[in-house]
Structure formats: structure tokens, C-alpha cells
Write a structure and sequence with these properties.
Layout: H1 4-21, E1 29-33, E2 45-51, E3 69-75, E4 78-84, H2 95-108, E5 112-121, E6 131-139, H3 167-180, E7 185-191, H4 200-208, E8 213-215, H5 219-227, E9 231-241, H6 252-276
Parallel strand pairs: 1-4, 1-5, 5-9, 6-7, 7-8
Antiparallel strand pairs: 2-3, 3-4, 5-8, 6-9
The chain binds hypoxanthine (HPA).
Hypoxanthine binds at residues 118-120, 197-198, 214-216, 239-240, 242, 250, 255.
């Protein structure tokens, strides 16, 4: 576990590698693409790619549907730093390793983090194909990327999560959905470690806890980003109903194929959302 000073060094090392590969002004907005949504990176114009392998501190993701590169480019007038491929705790990364890429983006000048993910719906209100603006989350993993020594120059030891998902960015997503004619819901995302999909009993429990969708990502990144003072928004694409809510077994192939069916909607919404962002 890196001590405070080591964390600052790790952040500086990663940031320096990116600055060297991309000396231009760093975007104020970072985007992480979830399972099956990686194609959004193709929308970026004037794009420069940096492979994760060339950035100290960036682990290499190992999931089908997740590439492993940072792409910097523009959507309309808006500059974006897009993480095409994400890191999951179930791959075996230490919790703190999930915070480091976010902190590196912040050190480079990113002020906002937009997270996307594929998730399972926990009721028939959230069937496959639903897009959900995350209004809040439940960390049901028992893990936290901020466990360990705290570097106060990065963020406070005890930090507030009252408005973890920034109200302005959420309103921006809703406005973009309305403008682009894409239906969205709002709901609570609950984070389970995975890698298994939940049991039927777990799905009933998670719904009872007040969640609308369950997934294996997003929460560690949100925690790291809020801790270091970034504004966060998240969009879930529901790719299936939770186990037991519909006949049949769950699979990652289904996640990817449902994500690709809904992809055009996600793209329309995000392009409209980013066009309205300043900077
Ligand atoms: N559970 C957890 N993660 C998921 C699911 C699910 O049902 N679908 C897509 N990601």
C-alpha cells in the first residue's frame, strides 16, 4: 500500500508519461466507457491514443469488450479524455489501484468524470435497454479504494458523499436525453464485486436495499473522483434483468449484445451532453 508521499509520486509519474505523449492542453472532462460502449471512442475527432501499457500506474484491463487505451480528442467543441477500457476489482487489482488512474487524470487537469457502465436491472421498471442516470450509489463491495494512508494534498481523510453524483451534470444528462429524444430513468446503482452475476436471492436483497441496478464497476472510480474534488456523473445501460426476474441464464455475451443494441441511443445522448458542456 503506497504511503501518502508515494501516492503523490505515483500520480506524478503517470501524469508525466501522459504529458510527454500528449503535450497539448488536457481536457477538463474525462469519460470511462463501460462494457460494450467502447465504440464511443470512435466518435472522438483529432484523436491521440496512449496505450495503458505506456502509462505507469495504469493496469491493463482483461475483460472482453474493454480495450486498453486513453484516447484524447474532441466531440464537437468539447475536449475529452476517454478511458477506453476500465479496471475492475474482480480482475484482482488492489482497491487503491482503481483510484490511481482517476487521480492521474485529475492531476492533468480533468475536473469532471463521466462514468458509463452496463448493469443488471433489479425490477421490471428497469428492463434490458433502459438507460439510467445514476442519482446515487450503494457500495456493497466491502472494499474502498481510499483505504490506506491518506494524502491530504489529494483529498480529505473523511470526505462527503452527500451529492456524489453532481446535480448539474445529472441535469445536463437529463436535458441531453430530452433534446435527443432518448428515454432515460433515474435510479440508484449498487456495486457488487463480481465476477459472478448475482444469485436470485441476492437480486431480491439488493432491490430491498433500495437499489435499481447492480453492477461491478463505477463506485470505486466515483469514490476516488469525489475524494480528489472532481464532479462525477454516471450513466448505466441496463443489459439484463437481474437473475430470477426473467427466464434464462445471464452471460457476458448477453451484456455485450444488449449493449450493442442500445449503443446508438447512448451515443446520441452522450454527443448531445458533451456538446452542451463548457470546456
Ligand atoms: N449484475 C452485475 N453486473 C452486471 C449485470 C448484472 O446482472 N449485467 C451487466 N453487468
Amino acid at each position: 500500500m503506497a504511503k501518502g508521499a508515494d501516492q503523490a509520486q505515483e500520480i506524478a509519474r503517470g501524469a508525466a508519461a501522459i504529458r510527454k505523449a500528449y503535450p497539448g492542453a488536457f481536457p477538463k472532462t474525462a469519460l470511462i466507457l463501460g462494457s460494450g460502449l467502447g465504440a464511443f471512442a470512435d466518435k472522438l475527432q483529432n484523436a491521440a491514443d496512449i496505450s495503458y501499457g505506456d502509462i505507469p500506474g495504469f493496469p491493463v484491463p482483461g475483460v472482453a469488450g474493454h480495450a486498453g487505451r486513453l484516447r484524447i480528442g474532441t466531440v464537437g467543441q468539447t475536449a475529452l479524455a476517454c478511458l477506453q477500457g476500465r479496471f475492475h476489482a474482480y480482475e484482482g487489482h488492489a482497491p487503491a489501484a482503481l483510484a490511481l488512474p482517476i487521480r492521474i487524470l485529475k492531476a492533468l487537469g480533468a475536473e469532471r468524470l463521466i462514468l458509463t457502465n452496463a448493469a443488471g436491472g433489479l425490477s421490471h421498471e428497469f428492463p434490458a435497454g433502459t438507460l439510467m442516470i445514476v442519482e446515487d450509489h450503494i457500495n456493497f463491495s466491502g472494499q474502498n479504494p481510499l483505504i490506506g494512508p491518506n494524502d491530504d494534498s489529494i483529498g480529505p481523510r473523511f470526505f462527503d458523499m452527500t451529492d456524489a453524483y453532481d446535480a448539474g451534470l445529472r441535469a445536463g444528462l437529463q436535458a441531453a436525453a430530452d433534446k435527443s429524444g432518448v428515454a432515460v430513468k433515474t435510479g440508484v446503482y449498487i456495486y457488487c464485486l463480481g465476477p459472478n452475476f448475482e444469485t436470485q436471492a441476492e437480486v431480491r436483497m439488493l432491490a430491498g436495499l433500495g437499489a435499481d441496478a447492480v453492477g461491478m464497476s463505477t463506485v470505486p472510480e466515483c469514490l476516488a473522483a469525489v475524494h480528489c474534488g472532481m464532479k462525477v456523473a454516471a450513466l448505466s445501460l441496463i443489459t439484463n434483468l437481474g437473475a430470477g426476474l426473467a427466464p434464462g441464464a445471464l452471460s457476458h455475451d448477453e451484456t455485450l449484445s444488449e449493449a450493442s443494441k442500445a449503443y446508438a441511443q447512448v451515443e446520441r445522448l452522450l454527443v448531445t451532453f458533451f456538446a452542451a458542456l463548457e470546456g
